[in-house]
Design brief:
By secondary structure, the chain is an all-alpha fold. Helices cover 88% and strands 0% of the residues.
Length: 176
């Protein structure tokens, strides 16, 4: 068996470390190539994505550039339209308020006129009742008394006049 001295052990350790470093270098070199290949693949994918998205971004930018003045103009027109609409609504509201007030005044006026007409009709009917009905009752009473006087003068026997009916035989329900 060979003798293990310090130098042999150191030589064995240096050889083992060298082999491990060589193995580490190979692994690191393999990792480097894999990472480089992945970076190229990612770069190609990014380039493809950029080439497909760039026209879309440029078209969108051009569209926004073209539409910005129209959008601002439309927003201004909408603001003017809203302002005009507010003014017209206020005008319509004031006109509606005025119409409602006029209708209210006319309704009050018509109510007053109808009340006056009905009061006049009532006064006229009371006047007619007092003017026509009262004299008619008085005239009717005078005529009834004149009839009674004439009948009493026509009859010779006052007792026969009392026993005789005052109405015709078929007219029992009639009032004169």
């Amino acid at each position: 068996m060979p003798k293990l001295d310090n130098q042999t052990i150191q030589l064995a350790l240096v050889a083992a470390v060298a082999l491990l470093m060589l193995f580490q270098m190979i692994v690191l070199l393999a990792v480097f190539f894999v990472i480089r290949k992945a970076a190229r693949s990612i770069r190609d994918d990014i380039e493809n994505l950029r080439s497909s998205v760039a026209p879309l971004i440029n078209n969108t930018r051009d569209l926004i550039t073209r539409l910005t003045p129209r959008i601002e103009e439309t927003a201004g027109d909408l603001a003017v339209l809203a302002r005009n609409l507010r003014t017209q609504v206020a005008d319509v509201q004031s006109a509606a308020d005025e119409i409602v007030e006029r209708v209210r005044r006319q309704a009050s006026r018509i109510d007053t006129m109808l009340s006056n007409v009905l009061d006049a009709v009532e006064r006229a009917s009371v006047f007619m009742a007092d003017t026509v009905a009262k004299p008619m009752r008085q005239l009717s009473a005078v005529l009834a008394s004149a009839k009674a006087v004439v009948e009493s003068l026509r009859t010779v026997d006052p007792a026969a006049a009392r026993s005789r009916p005052k109405h015709a035989p078929g007219d029992e329900d009639m009032f004169v």
